[in-house]
Amino acid sequence: MLELKNISFQAEDGGKEIEILRNINLTVENRFVAVTGPNGSGKSTLAKIVAGILTPTEGQIFLDGVDITQKSITERAQMGISFAFQQPVRFKGITVKDMLSIAAGRETAVSEVCAMLSEVGLCARDYVNREINASLSGGELKRIEIAMIMARKARVSIFDEPEAGIDLWSFQNLIRVFEKMHAETKGTILIISHQERILNIADQIVLLSDGRIEKVGSREEIMPALLGAGQPCRTLSDKLIQ
Amino acid sequence: MDAIQQELLAQVAGLHEVPEGAYNIRANGEMAGRNTTANIDITTKEDCPGIDIRIKPGTKSESVHIPVVLSQSGLQESVYNDFFVGEDCDITIIAGCGIHNGGSAASAHSGIHRFFVEKNAKVRYVEKHYGSGDGSGERIMNPTTEIHLAEGASLEMETVQIKGIDSTARTTTAKVAEGASLVIKEKIMTHGKQYAETDFTVNMAGADSSVNLISRSVAKERSRQIFRSRIVGNASCHGHSECDAIIMDEASVSAIPELTANHIDANLIHEAAIGKIAGEQLIKLMTLGLTEKEAEEQIVKGFLK
Which domains are assigned to chain A? Predict the structure, then answer.
């Protein structure tokens, strides 16, 4: 269980203090929780605070009742927090197999790598010894990033916009990956997304707006409001009626 | 051979026992072993220290090992080795030098290797440099490599210096004839107050010749590195050089590439990148459970692999 208590985050922008997150209180117990909201609402910041990449200005974070606010990225990772970057990082000379071994915390056999990669729709034969460098496309990197998180089998897995940078063809595949993850995971998945189809898998949806939690609820409660929010203004809808 | 020399041999040539095929082992300035085969002859030079290695035309899948080890502090030597590789050969040459300096006087080895590679011959040349010993005497290595590639010949050179050499100046020159190709992969890691300088000059002399120079290096602590490359396109050719360096601590790296095209169809490219380890790379590995130090080691290890 992940608990955020009174989390606030301020950053400086051009000499001006801006509040990116304000007084966030959130308990994540469900298996699959999605965080959504407009661009700039603080979603990625929230994920980075949980992973330890950013330190909150105020508030506390608890993992299964243990205060991890002061813990480093490494300590949190070792305690069971896993984080898939929105923009995967490239490494010269480090192969897909090396990275999956680091993620799994032990040397992995080619057959295991094959199983991990096939989960995200990649054939191990083409990728095992490929370097995680600029020769891989954004979509390929993204899928390898997801495979790494799956290899970790962490208590809390955070995905920061897994759909970003993925083409339409790969996206179909991605949905299937998350549906499967939802069915099989023993931990908690926290996923930041704009995608209706990903939100549709979630047990719980958190709607962030302007650094605050606007609403938390089941997808039945949140989805209609979200879809409604996209309605055109009067001027436009009047024209549509004509 | 004593234990120190055997350890050096294992480091530079991966040799734990007498190698197969042709070899010549030089230890503390003396010949410590030699074997020739029906196709590969090794003879001692008469006018200066060093050997001539002659490989008969058409020799395939054979190898020559010519490691050098120095364990006597204060020994300074220059050795001239010439390789004559006959037409249509396909062979591997493994050279390398290990210095163990447990004393206070500087030990130095300058190896001057010349390669005369005849038509359509293929050579893989591997060179490793390694230093050990806790004496205050410097371990100095100055390898010079001169490569002559005849029509259609190819040579791939892998040169590695990972540990223990205090000062090195590596000079490589090459002349590449029509249809010949040259690939050089260099890996260097320096630490402490070490200094490493590499200098490549390649003359693209024939039509459809190609060269690819790839240098990857890591400079730690207060070490310094200079990378120089000159590619001169005198015919229609493809030339590419790449210098990719990671700097850490208070190290310094300079990359000085030079490209000259003297022919309208000379295609020459240089890429250079120097910088510290990207923060996001460290963070990514830390989110996988590694400490910052372990993450740094992984990145360096991969980079120099």
Answer: 2-89+153-230 (3.40.50.300)
